[in-house]
Amino acid sequence: MKRIYVVTEGQSETNFVKKVLTPFFLPLNKNLIPTTVLTKVDEQKGKVHKGGMVNYAKARNTILKDLTYTKKDDVFVTTMFDLYALPTDTPGKNEANKISDPYQKVSCIEKAMFDFEKLTRPVYHPYIQLYEFEALLFSDLTFLANQYFEYNIQPLINCLAVKKNPELINDGAATAPSKRILNCIPIYDKATDGVSVLGKIGINKLCQSCKHFSEWIEWMKSV
Fold it and tell me: What is the mean pLDDT of residues 199-210?
């Protein structure tokens, strides 16, 4: 069975890999293993802090650790980082800021992240989520509405009607997907309910609605 290490920026993405992606890929003879970015080690208290993209340098430490496993032919590494609030020291970020097309923007960053490691084999496939994890929930808002039936999500429906594409819902401080959801559903819980809803939507529907996400899934199928 092939192993794919998925470096995640937080607990929500880690839960998504464990509860949604892994069950999908196991029948395909692929085991997805999430590794949350290590941000701080408190040696005095013996605590390890994970999650949160404080800077890319710290995230890279986790990436490099996982890349050491790729000495074996059946091991690969990818990432799941949001474009929204991506640290400024991320490879390709400055160049991407000059690009208006969102898909070209993430492609620029992903290529730069890969090139930065100077690998001799294509065992590493950086993935940047447009624009953040919550965009995936817009693939089918029916399930979010059912989860939080006492809240009015019409503004989210209206937003999707305008944008047409969940991956194009922008990254403004007040208009990023998570901000829009929280405006409608103040009790929205990303790490539990968000992941649960995505599981109900299903990978196939997510791929139909989200082009870049679909390309990532297809890469993992292909390795």
Answer: 98
